[in-house]
Structure formats: C-alpha cells, structure tokens
C-alpha cells in the first residue's frame, strides 16, 4: 500500500499526522505490528494468587485468559476454542480447575492444554490427530515486581530488555516498601470512551500541560485546601525508554494531595524517611509526585493516586479503559481504603479529574471525520526546558515536565514498530544502570 508510518510522525520538530487516529487500515496494522508482537500488561500477580484463579483480559483485540496453574506458573492463552472458535471463558475473573467450552464441551487445563472432550475415542481413532496440537494458543509470559506481561511474539526481546532502564524508575511505585504490592481486591472499573487508544496513552506518557487548563476546575479546590502543588519546570523531568515515558516532579505527595484526604497525606509523610532510605531521595520523591506514566503501548499509571490502567483498543475510534488501584501489601487496611476512595473520587469514570479528560480525547478523535481536518498535522513541538542539571540518570532524561519530549519518543517508537518487518529492525535503548535479570 506504500504506507510508511515514519512519514506520519516528525519526532524531531514534533508533528503527527491526524490520520493515525482515524484510518481503519492503520489501526489494523497496529494490531499486527504493535499489539501482536510487543509485551502487554495482562494482570497483577495478586489477581491470580491461588492455583486455579484466573482473569480474562485483552491483548490488542485478542481475548486472553490469565491463569495460575498447579505448578505455580502463570499462563496466558487465547480465549477462543480451536474447535469452532467459540469464546471459552465468559467470566472476568474466578477460580476453577479447567475451562470447558460451551459449544461441544472441549475442556482445557489451567495451562491451556486440551485435556478431554465428549466422544474422545472418535478423535483418538482419527489418523494424525494429536491432543497436544489443539490446546489454546499460548503467549510468552514474564513479570516485573508483581506486574505480569505477555506477548505472542517469539522474536520479542525479554521483558527485562524491553523495560530496560525504565525498571529503575518503576521501582518507585512497585518497590517502595518490603512485602511487594497488590491491586486492591474487588476487580477493575471498566468504561468506554469514543476515542483512539493513543490519545489517553499519549496524555499519560508526558502531558502534564493539560492539567493546568483541563483540570483547573477539578483540582484547584483540593489543591487550594492542601496548598502548594506547583506544576512548572523547576525540579521536574521527563524520562523515556523504548517509548515508555514518565513525567514527574520532586513533590513526594503532589498527585496525592488532590485526593483531598489529610489522613492519607499524614500516612505518606510517615513513610517518607523509610522510602527514602530504600530508594534514595530522587526516586522517593517520585512515589506520589505530580506525575503520570505510560508503559508502551497502552498501560498507564498515576503515582499518588496509584491508579493503573490499560487502554484497550476496540477499533480506531473506541477504547475500553480497565483501571485498578495498586498499593503496598503491608499498608494498613484503613489507609488502603482511603486510597481506594481517593482514587475513585479523582480517577474513576465519575472521578472529578478523569471526567475532565474524556471529552477532550473523544473530540480530538471525532474531529478527524472531516476529510480536510484529518489531513492537517498536530503540534508536538514544545521543547524541553533548558539544560539538564541532574546527570547520570538512566534513560533519556529531559529537564522540566512541561514539554512534548516524551510524546515525541512515544510516537517515534510507534512509527519504528509500525514500519519494522521484524523485531531485529526495532532498536532498543541499552540499559545503563539496571543489571539484566534472567527472564
Ligand atoms: Fe468449542 Fe466446539 S467450539 S467445543
Ligand atoms: Fe488528565
């Protein structure tokens, strides 16, 4: 077709062709070249702790089951029966010993292997039929500090290589305390937005700029009450690795302050020294700061609120958001509950801050119905602020959180992956600080 994604993104100056948020052909290529071959977040280990526990989710538009098997391994496999293709599991989560298809009763184990089916003898006597050829198609699985990822690509680099130096920053939210983290039990909030999946991912990867305008109404009353949450380019940064990005400042409980709960802030303050001793001041300040992050392509989180979410693509013009709240396991129950309520008040479908964002992404998408409109380009030209003073930080770090630096890296990664025929055509940032761990 002659399509070249790199013609659609100018990551040097910073422009993006609007058609990448609209065209069905580009969307189909995203499913193939991005979602079918990169690592995607599928679950937190705490959601599948017991043998037989499972959740269902999506990798791109592929429905998958994430299940803990008897050997302790977490398996991820397609949720579509190889017999006639029916969906195998209809629950969003649960506990069981096997998955039995509704249509003809084929039964699959917690590892996705085909175990038995009605009239099994008829297959056994079929020449060339082997049970092991007809299990549910398995993905590669790996986890990083509680977060489980999967990929359908055999060629993809290890998860550790893919996350690279971003792991050093991720530890600020995934490893602030002994005992690990968990998603608060009770499941995800799910909501649908009529927007392209890249707008929310791009917002979280580096767009604090919108908060100064979009969230003025929602955030100001709570900010005012607790005082002093400032967004500017002093003591703030953006970091990018392999298209993943995080913009943040050194406020320790900046985001958290907008939840309007003094007890929560008191608790966070009481943990500040311990977290600093564990991670050092720089990363301790990232724990609850004014910040947002995206792990490429569609897994995002907000420190402070500790909302973690996937932006599941449902066609070029529709996105389903699944959101959870992540907390240290050892946190006192009443504080966990305060985080639950705080993050619901702010970043749930009816939260005062999330409600602000939705229409912006929907209209940014829908405007491209106009032929002339979608042949214009969008502006990602805001340059990083001045010189970077903190040297030696891993990843591509730029000064100041008010810039389009991370978005340009996000769309650069997007374009490189869209144009690459194989993984060997996709260069990865070399980790500088974090030691390689075996997958
Ligand atoms: Fe699943 Fe026939 S489609 S058993
Ligand atoms: Fe927002």
Automatic annotation (TrEMBL):
One of its GO terms (molecular function) is 2 iron, 2 sulfur cluster binding. Keywords: 2Fe-2S, Aromatic hydrocarbons catabolism, Dioxygenase, Iron, Iron-sulfur, Metal-binding, NAD, Oxidoreductase. Its EC number is 1.14.12.19. It holds the Pfam family Ring_hydroxyl_A. Residues 39-150 form the Rieske domain. SUPFAM superfamilies: Bet v1-like, ISP domain. Belongs to the bacterial ring-hydroxylating dioxygenase alpha subunit family. This is 3-phenylpropanoate dioxygenase. It comes from Sphingobium chlorophenolicum L-1. The lineage of its organism: Bacteria, Pseudomonadati, Pseudomonadota, Alphaproteobacteria, Sphingomonadales.
């Amino acid at each position: 077709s002659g399509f070249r994604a790199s013609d659609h993104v100018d990551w040097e100056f910073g422009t993006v062709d609007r058609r990448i948020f609209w065209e069905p052909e580009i969307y189909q290529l995203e499913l193939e070249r991005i979602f079918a071959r990169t690592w995607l977040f599928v679950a937190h280990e705490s959601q599948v702790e017991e043998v037989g526990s499972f959740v269902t989710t999506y990798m791109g538009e592929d429905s998958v089951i994430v299940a803990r098997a008897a050997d302790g391994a977490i398996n991820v496999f397609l949720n579509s029966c190889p017999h006639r293709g029916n969906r195998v599991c209809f629950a969003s989560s649960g506990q069981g010993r096997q998955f039995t298809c509704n249509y003809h009763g084929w039964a699959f184990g917690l590892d996705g292997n085909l175990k038995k089916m009605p009239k099994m003898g008829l297959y056994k006597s079929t020449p060339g039929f082997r049970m092991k050829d007809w299990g549910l198609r398995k993905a590669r699985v790996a986890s990083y500090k509680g977060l489980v990822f999967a990929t359908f690509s055999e060629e993809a680099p290890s998860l550790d290589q893919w996350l690279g130096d971003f792991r050093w920053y991720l530890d600020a939210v995934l490893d602030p305390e002994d005992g690990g983290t968990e998603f608060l039990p009770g499941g995800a909030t799910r909501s649908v937005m009529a927007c392209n999946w890249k707008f929310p991912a791009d917002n979280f990867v580096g767009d604090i700029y919108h908060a100064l305008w979009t969230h003025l109404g929602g955030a100001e009353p709570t900010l005012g009450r607790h005082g002093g949450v400032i967004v500017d380019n002093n003591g703030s940064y953006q970091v990018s690795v392999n298209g993943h990005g995080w913009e943040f400042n050194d406020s320790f409980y900046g985001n958290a302050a907008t939840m309007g709960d003094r007890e929560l802030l008191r608790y966070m303050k009481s943990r500040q020294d311990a977290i600093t001793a564990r991670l050092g001041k720089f990363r301790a300040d990232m724990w609850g700061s004014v910040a947002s992050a995206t792990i490429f392509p569609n897994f995002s989180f907000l420190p402070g609120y500790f909302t973690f979410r996937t932006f599941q693509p449902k066609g070029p013009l529709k996105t389903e958001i699944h959101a959870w709240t992540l907390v240290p396991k050892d946190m006192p129950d009443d504080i966990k509950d305060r985080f639950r309520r705080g993050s619901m008040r702010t970043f749930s479908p009816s939260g005062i801050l999330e409600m602000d964002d939705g229409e912006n992404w929907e209209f940014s998408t829908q405007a491209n119905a106009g032929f002339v409109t979608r042949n214009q380009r969008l502006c990602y030209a805001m340059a990083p602020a001045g010189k970077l003073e903190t040297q030696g930080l891993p990843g591509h770090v730029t000064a100041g959180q008010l810039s389009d630096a991370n978005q340009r890296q996000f769309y650069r990664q997007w374009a490189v992956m869209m144009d690459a025929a194989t993984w060997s055509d996709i260069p990865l940032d070399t980790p500088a600080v974090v030691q390689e761990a075996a997958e």
